[in-house]
């Protein structure tokens, strides 16, 4: 059979990795796919010193979508603007698309998939979540027999690197962030990573394919890791927990929880032991129970691994009846559910509270009564010695599971107590059984 | 579209689970697959008290393969004899097959896939390895862009339960085995589990789809966990390792290593922390690096999860051109490689050696010279106090990586020393980076 011709748009880290993997493993990939996959064109403004593209014609990005010889457009430029234009143009021209662009899919995916359906083409996006881990495929196909109950993921490597360093070496957030920037793990503007926006993009995609709801990035709750102190990391450790920046999606009777925030996880859970820049996603289904998928969440070749797997999938599916393909969002487009995404105030979680008490025994009684009046049960209490510099006594509580609105209300009451100094630190706790 | 009609053959644990999951999640599954999946017939000798099959016709197993209404035959009876006859008959009749039968695939898969290809039907077998973990799909499709370097799996839950109990509670192998049998984790004849035959079946399948070689169960090396002592478990722990019963497949220039045996793994590896009956498989690819896939490796509904996912896959692919489907063994049948499976004597590994010395300082010098004469480097040495009852001094060595033949030769020389009592205990060590 004739080789399939692909055009790679964007020759940065992932584009360069994709080019190199397709070249290096060409024979192995053809043995699997049953036909060759040829990089027939590259759309890029500049070359990549790590790629030998001397045999491949290079043009501007949008021209690739117009090249009649190209079967599959691989969008690896990132961002919402040109990437969106490129993808829509490629679809309009009847080309299949492979993309690693989580922001594009999370924000414009509904529109993109509708257009792709109209044109009978595939838009594949495995590389958009958790790099080389085939998590989209696992949820969309591998667990297709299940009703997914929840999923929880460490899906931002930069954030996990920072939390790992804070825990293992007692370093501060700011200190590690600077190193991460120097190492190239974090951007000069780290907002997307440390405020959980990047993770929320990925979580939005995972939740859609797990629960069969449209992409609703604007409804995801996002809380970053910038406020975490080494004290909290250490108290969590003493209580038998680790703090991870988790993307969490859960289906309840009332609706779907969709939230990214620092989370205490029991230290003996596998996911609590995922360290450094590595990613992992747990998925809990009614038949399979809990599963975990682990690997490199970013990087030149790990992400390329997912891009190339998508290309092979497209090569196999492109000759099939569009109605029998795996639906973009795992569920048939006319079978998506309107189960609502819950506001964070209606989400349920257990909580870690750190209260700075001026007068420990008295405050404990008041705090306990604030919680008990609201029907919030205390799981455990830890009191530490006064910190020398301010004489305040840190009081750490773990609560049972409760609706967020109630804990917010309780915290407001605690912060109104005369014996409590400053803000109460609140971190959610998940058991992830 | 008309529902797809499946026949479930075998209504034991997995068959019952498959029946129940298909019923309970019928709506969710149809929302994904785009059409209903109906259990139109059951082939079984007896009913399953955990299934309400009152609405479903029950017949003898082989009749299901002859029922012209059935599109997909689900083989869940196990064993080689009737299962093989059923699968071949179903294929002959142009039916697609889903099976959870690792022994059947590992031993007769080449013949079965050849026949399926001739008839243009699919034989899906995700449930045959690691229960609910979609590991076949991950390797065959999700990592299709990679040259797989190696894979390593905890793929027998019974064995892992025994090793976990030995380590966590200091219990003996025999003691835990009896409990596992009482709990139903282990068979009355536990040979398949504890001698590694079950794991070798699964490893054979994983190695074929990872490296693109025919199934060669007869060439897999198998070593059980029956000789492991709590002393070895504790020494390993003291050295920073855990002992797991690992299925290990590695591609080298010389050939493919295919081996199941107890293995020391650094305690901080994620896979070293997979406990109880849970399974996990690490896969290392040239682009993606190391990945890990974790979940329940057996049980009624976890295994059913994989069976049903296969059914959904078959429903999607059954209308497609057979040439464009995912090949049974991941690589096109005419592109399988004849890269040989290596005999265990030619496999490379690091080793843990436990030597019972009568006279410690003298023996150490002799042992060191035996190793050094054969070019085997010592990574570390641990000497323990004499055990009271026999006055023998346990001497534990970790070697660098070496070809097995050399270590066998060295062990033979050590066992010939006058100062060494009995056999040298030898356990392989893998770093699994």
Protein described:
Two copies of one chain form a homodimer. The first copy, chain A, is an alpha/beta fold. Chain A has three domains: 165 residues, NAD(P)-binding Rossmann-like Domain (Rossmann fold, 3-Layer(aba) Sandwich), CATH 3.40.50; 161 residues, Dihydrodipicolinate Reductase, domain 2, CATH 3.30.360; 82 residues, ACT domain (Alpha-Beta Plaits), CATH 3.30.70.260. Chain A is built from 14 helices and 17 strands. In chain A, the strands form two sheets. In chain A, strands 7, 8, 9, 10, 11, 12, 13, 14, 15, 16 and 17 form an eleven-stranded mixed beta sheet that branches. The radius of gyration of chain A is 24 Å and the shape is elongated. Chain A starts with a strand and ends with a strand. The model of chain A has no long low-confidence stretch (mean pLDDT 96). At the A-B interface, α1, α2, α6, β12 and α12 of A face α1, α2, α6, β12 and α12 of B.
Question: What's the quick description here?
Answer:
Two copies of one chain form a homodimer. With 433 residues, chain A is α/β, with parallel strands linked by helices.
The total number of structural domains of chain A is 3
Helix content of chain A: 25-40%
Q: What form of chain A results from the Cα inertia axes?
A: elongated
Query: Number of helical segments of chain A?
Result: 14
Q: How is the biggest beta sheet of chain A arranged?
A: 11 strands, mixed
Mind telling me which CATH architecture of the largest domain in chain A this is?
3-Layer(aba) Sandwich
Largest interface: A-B, 67 and 68 residues
- Name the structural class of chain A: alpha/beta
CATH superfamily of the largest domain in chain A: NAD(P)-binding Rossmann-like Domain
Distance between the termini of chain A: 48 Å
Oligomer state equals homodimer
Average pLDDT across residues of chain A?
A: 96
Radius of gyration from the alpha-carbon trace of chain A, in angstroms: 24 Å
Q: How many strands appear in the DSSP assignment of chain A?
A: 17
Low-confidence stretches of chain A: none
How much strand content do the residues of chain A show? 15-25%
CATH class type of the largest domain in chain A: Alpha Beta
GO molecular function (chains A, B): homoserine dehydrogenase activity; NADP binding
Organism (chains A, B): Azomonas macrocytogenes (Azotobacter macrocytogenes)
Domain ACT (chains A, B): 352-429
Active site (chains A, B): 202
């Amino acid at each position: 059979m004739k080789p399939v011709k692909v055009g790679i748009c964007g020759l940065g880290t992932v584009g360069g990795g994709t080019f190199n993997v397709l070249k290096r493993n060409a024979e192995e990939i053809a043995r699997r796919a049953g036909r060759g996959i040829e990089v027939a064109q590259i759309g890029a403004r500049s070359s990549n010193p790590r790629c030998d593209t001397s045999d491949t014609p290079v043009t501007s990005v949008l021209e690739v979508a117009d090249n009649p010889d190209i079967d599959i457009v691989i969008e690896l430029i990132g961002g919402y603007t040109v990437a969106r234009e490129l993808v829509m143009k490629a679809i309009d021209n009847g080309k299949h698309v492979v993309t690693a662009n989580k922001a594009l899919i999370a924000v414009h995916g509904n529109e993109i998939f509708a257009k792709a359906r109209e044109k009978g083409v595939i838009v594949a996006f495995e590389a958009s979540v958790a790099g080389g881990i085939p998590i989209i495929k696992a949820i969309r196909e591998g667990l297709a027999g299940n009703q997914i109950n929840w999923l929880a993921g460490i899906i931002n490597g930069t954030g996990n690197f920072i939390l790992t360093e804070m825990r293992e070496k007692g370093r501060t957030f700011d200190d590690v962030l600077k190193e991460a920037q120097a190492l190239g793990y974090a951007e000069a503007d780290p907002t997307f990573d440390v405020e959980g926006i990047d993770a929320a993009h990925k979580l939005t995609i995972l939740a859609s394919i797990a629960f069969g709801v449209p992409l609703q990035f604007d409804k995801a709750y996002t809380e970053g890791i910038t406020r975490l102190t080494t004290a909290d990391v250490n108290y969590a450790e003493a209580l038998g927990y680790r703090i991870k920046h988790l993307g969490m999606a859960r289906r309840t009777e009332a609706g779907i929880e969709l939230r990214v925030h620092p989370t205490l996880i029991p230290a003996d859970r596998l996911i609590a032991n995922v360290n450094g820049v590595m990613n992992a996603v747990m998925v809990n289904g009614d038949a399979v129970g809990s599963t975990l998928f682990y690997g490199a969440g970013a990087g030149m070749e790990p992400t390329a691994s997912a891009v190339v797997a998508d290309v092979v999938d497209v090569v196999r599916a492109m000759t099939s009846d569009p109605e029998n393909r795996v639906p973009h969002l795992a569920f048939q487009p006319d079978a998506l559910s309107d189960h609502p995404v819950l506001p964070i105030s209606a989400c349920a979680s257990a909580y870690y509270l750190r209260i700075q008490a001026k007068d420990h025994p008295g405050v404990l009684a008041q705090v306990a009564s604030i919680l008990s009046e609201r029907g919030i049960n205390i799981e455990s209490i830890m009191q530490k010695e006064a910190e020398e510099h301010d004489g305040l006594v840190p009081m750490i509580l773990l609560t049972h599971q409760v609706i967020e609105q109630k804990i917010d209300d309780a915290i407001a009451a605690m912060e109104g107590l005369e014996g409590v100094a400053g803000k109460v630190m609140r971190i959610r706790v998940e058991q992830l059984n």
